[in-house]
Amino acid sequence: MSYWDAAKAVRRSRVLEPEAIARTAARLLDQVGYDEFSLRLLADWLDVAPASLYSRIRGTSDALDLALDHALGADHSIQQAISRGEAVEILRAFFEHLLEHSWAVHVVAMRPPRGPAYLEFSESLVRGLQESGRSDPLSRAYAATNLVIGSALTYQAAGREVDAPVSADRAPHYEALHADIAFTPHDVLDKALGELLNVG
Question: Residue 14: what pLDDT?
Fold first, then answer.
């Protein structure tokens, strides 16, 4: 269950606002990364006792949900792409967003994001595909976003592909092509998106 499925009710008149949790959690994740994030550290950044966090959220997953949606909603490049409604531009902006906020790749892979910023993103992407005449826009949107998420997750490894040697004895065809490699992870993503979105 995500934060957006059942947000906790306010139990006190003076309470920590979800917007403050979201904003601070996103900044903290940008600084320490996904693996080092904790509610205790978030409470320190908010200058509150950990118990104050539990008055508004159920646990770490809720904090991650809030941070994920805040980061997307605050990304001006994403918002500009959404306003223009062109699917490939939206997906490219999403790729850059995930590279900038590398922790978001791990969070978005846990479960479908359902915060308002992600719903706006999904609506714009599906509508853009539908209005451009692509068949089966929802399946294409799922496939394209999964492609972007996977490309962002493997970005560092893909960047080292050029320098990683390939054995000519074990993989001669691969080695011959690899010797002339002249593309970047961005080039690969653009080509894959073009193939995926422009067929049928």
Answer: 46
Write out residues in the chain with pLDDT < 50, as ranges: 12-14
Measured between alpha carbons, how far apart are the two ends of the chain, in Å?
36
Q: Where are the beta strands (DSSP E) in the chain?
A: none
Q: With contact defined as beta carbons under 8 Å apart, do 120 and 80 qualify?
A: no
Residue 67 to residue 4: CA distance in whole angstroms: 12
Distance, CA of 192 to CA of 58 (rounded, Å): 39
For 56-88, letters b (16+ CB in 10 Å) and e give: bbeeeebbbbbbbbbbbbebeebbebbeebbbb
Q: Which fold has domain 75-200?
A: Tetracycline Repressor; domain 2 (1.10.357)
Domain boundaries, the chain: 1-74, 75-200
Please state which CATH number belongs to domain 1-74. Answer: 1.10.10.60
Q: What is the pLDDT of residues 66-106, one digit of tens each?
A: 999 999 999 999 999 999 999 999 999 999 999 999 999 99
